[in-house]
Amino acid sequence: MTISSPTFDEMFTADGGTRSAYAGYSEWLEAQDQHWMTHKGAEAEAFFRRTGITFNVYGEEDAEERLIPFDLVPRIITGKEWRRLSRGIEQRVRALNAFIHDLYHRQEIVRSGRLPERLFRDNVAWLPEMVGLTPPGGVYTHIVGIDLVRTGPDEFMVLEDNARTPSGVSYMLENRETMMSMFPELFTGMHVRPVSDYPRRLAKSLAACAPECAAARPVVAVLTPGVYNSAYFEHAFLADQMGAELVEGSDLRVQDGRVCMRTTRGYQPVDVIYRRVDDEYLDPLSFNPTSLLGVPGIMDVYRAGRVTIANAPGAGVADDKAIYSFMPEIVEFYTGEKPLLPNVPTWRCAEKDSLAYVLAHLEELVVKEVHGSGGYGMLIGPTSSKREIAAFRKKLEAKPENYIAQPTLALSTVPVFTKKGLAPRHVDLRPFVLVSPQGIDITPGGLTRVAMKKGSLVVNSSQGGGTKDTWVLDD
User: Fold this and answer.
1) Alpha carbons 362 and 380: distance in angstroms, whole number
2) Torsion angle, alpha carbons of 357, 358, 364, 369, to 10
3) What is the H or E stretch that residue 335 is in?
4) H or E element that contains 356
5) What do you get for the CA distance between the two ends of the chain, in Å?
6) In 1, 139, 295, 381, which residue has its Cα 20 to 30 A from 418's Cα atom?
7) Right CATH number for 346-408 from 3.30.40.10, 3.30.1490.270, 3.40.50.150, 3.30.9.10?
8) How far is CA 400 from CA 158, 169, 323, 370, 403, in A?
9) Cα radius of gyration (the chain)
10) Residue 40 carries which DSSP code?
11) Strand 365-369 relative to strand 379-380: parallel, antiparallel, unpaired?
12) How far is the C-alpha of 461 from the C-alpha of 52, rounded, in Å?
């Protein structure tokens, strides 16, 4: 299972040549003045600061809002590569939606012996309240983020599935707007597929999932936990770009069997709620009774089919990293096809033999919590001290079913612009997928996250990673 290969740089070949995808950009870059580019970097930072493009870095004493580092060198993907990726992403998203439906209905995959029942029965993201409930339009995963990593010229793998409330799309859009405003000549000379219509497509996709009782023009609202949430900028940004209302739980109430929104003309029905509030806080009458972030009774309206909640409550069961390890079987079970995009090889620490291997090779592996996210609660063996490994070993031995392990991948690199010139940094990619009864819509590109520290494999914004504009060439 160990993957060991030299790092693949997406812009430069091993002998220093430029790969074909970057030929046009490289020619342009060589003609630019280094000091001018440095000035442009400062200009981009000032733009992000004025716009308020920030993210909270939790777990530190000075955990305040910070600017997300933005790099001027785009990540470029050829049209041929994107078409292949799109087919694999679409297949996976179809399987995820069918899988979630099955878990809350007949559980055929469990009956077949392909998936252990304990994986969802003991899973906090699996909601008994959703059993037997089919959302309007049959869609559970309205917005999906599939995290991809690249290890070679034709080697893409899925690192994680994000079916709960994937974030980062506002940074994708702002990255593109920043690049187009600073370097307009690049976009006149290169055929880069647009991403700016994502909010329109999101609004259209959400409206297509409206319940039967919806107005002719469905009313869409974005439900945010409020201004102190780490991703509040994105909530406000998307609501504004979609022409939707940005609401908090206190702005909504259940009235006459509908979820209604407070307006200057009184309370008006809402048809679709794009929620950025976790399941636990969504309805204090069904989940956490102390929650002030949700709407009392919203689950009763949802069960009655009189409001759409995107993504569906309980969809987060598909984010579980132990279930992720079964995705090849899940894809084949629901699509009848072999997966077009492979998983990263994964050891399930709940299994005795796998645990023994992981404990014997901790210094070589990446170990993650099955319910973890944002880069928290994980061990990166090759960069951890003996003391950190020893402490993590105790946690793993105490609760092995809480962890999975993966090899340390040779993630591809894309150069970043530094004062000393270009320098390679590791990246991943989160394409954004919209699902509705009308089909699956994949935005060309997505969010490239980059580890800003030399040699680091941690790209998460919450851990200090940065972002790049992602170009898909239209060839």
Assistant:
1) 9
2) 160
3) helix 327-335
4) helix 352-360
5) 36
6) 381
7) 3.30.1490.270
8) 23, 34, 15, 10, 6
9) 22
10) H
11) antiparallel
12) 15
* Whether the Cβ atoms of residue 434 and residue 440 lie closer than 8 Å to each other: yes
State phi, psi for 37 to the nearest 5 degrees.
-65, -40
Q: Identify the three-state secondary structure at position 401.
A: helix
Sheet of 258-263, strand order:
252-255, 258-263, 266-269
Structure token digits, residue 239: 């609501």
Q: Are residues 413 and 9 in contact, defined by beta-carbon separation less than 8 angstroms?
A: yes
Q: Measured between alpha carbons, how far is 439 from 442 in angstroms, rounded to an integer?
A: 10
Distance CA 414, CA 22 (A): 11
> Six-digit token pair at 341?
């995009």
366 in Cβ contact with 381 (< 8 Å): yes
Instruction: Report the alpha-carbon distance of residue 406 to residue 381 in Å, rounded.
Output: 10
CA 85 to chain centre: 16
User: Residue 126: helix, strand or coil by DSSP?
Assistant: coil
DSSP state, residue 9:
B
- Sheet holding 347-348: strands in order across? 347-348, 403-407, 365-369, 379-380
- How does pLDDT run along the chain (475 residues), one tens digit per residue? 233 346 899 999 999 999 999 999 999 999 999 899 999 988 888 888 777 666 555 444 444 566 788 999 999 999 999 999 999 999 999 999 999 999 999 999 999 999 999 888 888 899 999 999 999 999 999 999 999 999 999 899 999 999 998 999 999 999 999 999 999 999 988 999 999 999 999 999 999 999 999 989 999 999 999 998 888 989 999 999 999 999 999 999 999 999 999 999 999 999 999 999 999 999 999 999 999 999 999 999 999 999 999 999 999 999 999 999 999 999 999 999 999 999 999 999 999 999 999 999 999 999 999 876 655 678 988 889 999 999 999 999 999 999 999 998 889 999 999 888 899 999 999 999 999 999 999 999 999 999 988 888 878 776 678 999 999 999 7
> What would the two tokens of residue 170 be?
């506002």
